[in-house]
Amino acid sequence: MANMMDRCLADLEARLDEAAEERNLDAWRQFLDNRCTDPIFFPPKRRPAPPKVKWPAIAINDALDNVDLMVLREFAGVSALLAGGGSLRLNVRCNYGTGILPTMFGCELFVMPRESETLPTARPLHAHAAVRRIVEAGMPEVRAGLGGKVFDCAARFLEVLRNHPLLARYVTLYHPDMQGPVDAAEVIWGSEMFLAFYDEAGLVREFLDVITQTYTAFMRQWYALVPPRGDTSVHWGLLHKGRLMIRNDSLMNLSPKHYVDFVRPLDQKLFDEFGGGAIHFCGRGSHYIAAMSEVRGLTAINMSQPHLNDMDAIYEHTVRKRIKLLGFDPKTAQAALAAGRLPPGQVQC
Questions:
Q1: How far is residue 152's CA from residue 142's CA, in Å, rounded to a whole number?
Q2: 325, exposed or middle or buried, with CB in 10 Å at 0-12, 13-18, 19+?
Q3: pLDDT at residue 1, rounded to an integer
């Protein structure tokens, strides 16, 4: 395994074009600093650089149980991006899926069938009594559940990067998928949680507080181990200002009032603690985007399914306030630009 790792990473370093990486990074920084002169920001593509050695195909199920396989699998993603001449930032992560935080609270890991090649998740507890026990027990250890695997994997990434300084300079190890307080709460509790916002509001608040405390403790330890790079972070190859990418997919099922009362204060605590960042959501978010845009430190939104949203509301409370749209659908952006609905230089596709 060691010989394979060395051979593949030497190949990766040999294919890195430092000048191209600096141009790509500079373009991203111009975009984030509102110095982009293009109406829509398309990061500069690299010249395709195919591998000179055969990289192994590593199944995610194998990588879950072997740190070296996880590391090599993530670097294989960087190799594929260089081979295709992609324009995203180069990044790797401890890729254990959405179950990291839920397993810390005792949820069973649900591993998908090998042939699906899909990240695992966790089985919800589906019991109010279990949620009450979590609240009474308080914050778990950060190495509980998958937490220990994440930190062991991060340490291995750092060891590898120390031995490959060119990769260390241009490949970012970004924070693992901790979701966000409300997303983690739904995975842990189950969909019964949405009724509990009405029937057991006090329990919901206490539960979300414990999750946020755990998220905070985990990320403090993460950034103690993996120091941030300046005032920007990378997530899914997207560069944004701030430290966190909070996931708020579960918000599509909540009213704006419930978001403001229950969830936004916790997102705000996290942004205050870690210097702001970006928020991701899938599905419909235009009903709460006005309230979300008021979060201090929010620098960018990463969303999907624009056809499910009132995009005028989205534009009004993101790009018109210089909150960037990242990883946005290019056809939607180009149509909005042509119709005069989109300010120039605020959307990345």
A1: 12
A2: buried
A3: 72
> What value does the mean pLDDT take over residues 273-296?
98
**Reported confidence tier of residue 307, pLDDT bands at 50, 70, 90:** very high
**pLDDT confidence band for 2 (50 / 70 / 90):** confident
User: Hey, what are 291's tokens?
Assistant: 């309230």
Separation CA 207–CA 136 (nearest Å): 9
Judge whether 348 and 326 are in contact, CB under 8 Å. Answer: yes
CA distance 339 to 311: 12
DSSP string, 297-316: TEEEEEE--GGGS-HHHHHH
E-strand ranges in 53-175 read 91-92, 109-110, 121-122, 172-173
Token pair for residue 41? 């920001």
Question: What residues contact 138, with CB distance under 8 A and at least 6 apart?
Answer: 210, 213
> What single DSSP character describes residue 295?
S
pTM comes to: 0.96
Pair 219, 176: CB distance under 8 Å: no
Those residues whose C-beta lies under 8 Å from the C-beta of residue 185, and which sit 6 or more positions away, are 193, 204, 207, 208, 211, 250
Percent of the chain predicted with pLDDT > 90:
99
Q: How many other C-beta atoms lie within 10 A of the C-beta of residue 161?
A: 20
DSSP H or E stretch at residue 79: helix 67-84
CA distances from 63 to 55, 114, 118, 124, 152 (A): 15, 11, 12, 23, 13
According to DSSP, the β-strands at 238-241 and 232-235 are antiparallel
Cβ 245 vs Cβ 175: under 8 Å: yes
